[in-house]
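hiii, so i know i said id send this last week but things got crazy w the move. better late than never?? heres the sequnce for the chain we talked about at the cafe, plus the structure i predicted for it. fair warning i was half asleep when i ran it
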Amino acid sequence: MQQFDTVIIGGGPGGLACAAALAHKGAKVLLLERKQRLGAKVCAGGVTWSGLGAKLPPELIERSFAVQKISSSWQTATLQAHIPIISTVNRLHLGRHMAEKALAAGATIKAGVSVREIHDHHLTTTDGAFGYRFLVGADGSSSLVRRYLRLPAERMGIGINCQMETTFAEMEWCLDSKRFGCGYAWIFPHRDSTSIGAYVDRRAMNATTLLERFLDWCAHRGIDLHGCRPRASLINFDFRGYRFGNRFLVGDAAGLASGLTGEGIYPAILSGETIAELIADPAADTGRLDRLIHRQRHHHRFLSRVGKNRLCSLLCSEAILLGLRTGLIPLHALEMGAEQPAPSQPQSHRYHQQGSAR
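okay and structure toks below
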């Protein structure tokens, strides 16, 4: 049985970030991915500039938007900044890029390999057995490692996405509380396509209802989905810890996505990098991840208070958009990756708001 310092299950952004960081430190790392292609996932592909967009190589950025159009049942708003607010990325291209970095650092990656059983110091797979000192679960919302740790995953979001072979000019968010409660619909243009989808808290709406309302919203907007098959994915925001002895969880496996917005790429990468630091040095600084967890919990508390009541959802959606229009609520308050600058530091985003009540 081949032995490794760390075995990582899952080849998404969190697992690949963890593999690259550990391999750079000289650790013997194995990453296992059950799919043949790394990075493929139902995902809108949006990344905030303050969280991840500014750190990616320019060739990975599909489109960047310094203007955000946001609408609700009663209002519209346009937010504009001096630098991009949100960019879009292709998950397959991002996965390929991150895998190349992990391989160059010395990590071993095995794709198309499924884990059958997890044991205390080894696991069995379709490619044999592998021993480990540390195990990292980066295997998404239906994480096998999370189930092995007997951690429930009750708080989930549902995302539905269509990748249309049509390019749209503008990025849009629609806080249509009548259709989506505290969720929203989106239009995220990429280089040669556009992601159109919707996201809700699963406790407020099931997947069938979400699909029906998403299709109705598309018809209302005059968006023709002919030939584009909607695909659904669960998003785990049920965070219950990330360190369990010599086993760790990152990203969606840990429940680190935002329950409010569904944002998950940046939390996955940050948690993967932080856990690599902890494995190498148990006394490593976890401040950035701790601040992200604080923000994630804040999003969850807000959602729990207003998400199940239709009237509360309507009023809160309108209040959020009014706050964004007037500048009382900064957009970074909704971002998982935003860090408040120190008083002596300049603000990286300076927004110009405009909008109107309908």
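btw The radius of gyration is 20 Å. thought thatd interest u
miss u guys!!
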